[in-house]
Amino acid sequence: MPWPIVGHERAVELLRQSLASGRVAQAYLIFGPPGVGKTTLAALLAKAVNCEGDDPPCGRCAQCLRFDRGVHPDVLIIRRGMVLDEEDETAGTRVGIGAVRELIREASLLPMAGRYRVFIILDAELMTVEAANALLKTLEEPPPHVLIILVAADDSALPETVRSRCLRLELRPVGLGRVAALLQERGVDPDRARLLAALGRGRVGRSLALAEDEDWLRWRQELLDRHARLVASGETAAALRWAQELAEGFGRDRDQILEALDVLAEWWRDLLVVRAGAADLVTNVDREDEIRKLAQRLDFGTILDAVRQVRRARRLLEQNVHPRLTLDNLALALPVSDAR
Description:
- It contains 15 helices and five strands.
- A five-stranded parallel beta sheet has the order 2-3-4-1-5, with helices on both faces.
- Helix 5 links the parallel strand 3 and strand 4.
- Helix 8 crosses helix 9 and helix 12 packs antiparallel against helix 14.
- The longest helix is centred in the last third of the chain and has 22 residues.
- It is elongated, with a radius of gyration of 23 Å.
- The termini are far apart.
C-alpha cells in the first residue's frame, strides 16, 4: 500500500525498507522548505513504527487510530512556543530547554501501548543552544525503545553535533504537474490548480493550504494590482503613500509585510525570467499577460535591480532597520514603465 504522500519516493522507500528489515534508526532529521511535506512524513513514520498491520502504517489498527485521534500515549509532539517549564524564558518563540527536559524524562519510560516512544520536534532549528545540548546526550545514547524525529526547514541552523547523530532525509519540491494533478483530484479546476501549484513552487502542503485560503489569494491579487499600477504610473506621491501603508502595517503584522515583499520579489522575478526568454518558469501564471507586457518595456538590468531592491528591503526589515525609511527607499527605487 503506497504511503499517502505526494513525491519523496526515495525517502519513503528508505523508510519502508527500514521498517521491513527491523532496522529503523533511532533519530531522523527530516528537512526541506516549508510546506514540502516534512511533518506529513514524520507523522507517517511515527505511525508506522507502532503499527500492528502487515504494511505499516495501515491506518486501521488500534495504534494508527490512536495516533490519528491525537491520543497515542507513546507519542509526544514538541512545537516552538510550548511552555513545559515556567522558568524557560525562551519558550515563547523557540524550542526551549523545558520541552527537551520533558522529552528526556519521557524517554526514560517504557512504552505504554506500542513498541516505541516517539518524539517529534517541529521547527527543530529553533532549539535554543541549551535545548540542543541537553538533547545531545539522548541522541548519543538513546534507549532502544525511543525514536526521535527532528523536523527542520533549515538543517544548517542545527549544531553539527546534533545533525551528525541523525539519519538525514532531505525533502525537495515536487514537480508542478504532480501537484496540479493532486489538486484536481480534490476538485480544483485545472487553471486554478495550475496557479496554486506554481504559487506553492512544488510544495504540496503550501498549495493545499492556499486552496483553502481565499482571503490570502484575494490579498495577493490586490497587492499585485496596486504594485503594477504604481510601476505603470510612476507617481512618486502614490508610491510613498504605498510605502507609508506598508510601514504602518509592519507595526501591526510584521510577518504579513515580509510576506508581501516575498510576493513582490516573486512578481519581479517573473518579469526577469520572461525578459530572459524563459516564460515557462513564471510563477504568477494568472498574471502572465501583464508580466509579458511590462517585461517588454523594461530592460533586463532594470528588472534585476528591482528584484534586488525588494529583497534588500526585506532583509533590512528582518533586521529591524527603520521600516518607514526602508520602505520609502524601496518605493523611490522602483522602476517606471514607459506605458504612461
